[in-house]
Amino acid sequence: MAIRVELFYSPICPYCPEAIGILLEALEGADREFHLEEINVFSPEGLERAKRHDILSVPAMIIENNIK
């Protein structure tokens, strides 16, 4: 079963592109299967999901329902 990873980002965040790149590189080298969902907090749905998880800054990740 794939591990669920949700990555919250903003298109104007200066740190998000590097964080996304590092995460993708790490997932490619992993010996487990992952399901990655990138969530733009500028979209209405993304903002609602960030609020639901009390995410106040980006980049932020939720791995199997644990905020990192």
Tell me about the largest β-sheet: 4 strands, mixed
Question: What is the arithmetic mean of pLDDT?
Answer: 93
By CATH, the topology is Glutaredoxin
Strand content: 25-35%
Low-confidence stretches: none
Specify the CATH class.
Answer: Alpha Beta
What is the count of structural domains? 1
Concise description?
This protein has 68 residues and is an alpha+beta fold.
Notes on the structure:
- With 68 residues, the protein is of the alpha+beta class.
- It has one domain: Glutaredoxin, CATH 3.40.30.10.
- 32% of the residues lie in helices and 29% in strands.
- The chain is globular.
- The protein starts with a strand and ends with a strand.
Descriptive tags:
68 residues, alpha+beta, Glutaredoxin, 4-stranded mixed β-sheet, 29% strand
Describe how the helices and strands are arranged.
Layout: E1 3-9, H1 16-28, E2 34-40, H2 44-52, E3 60-63, E4 66-67
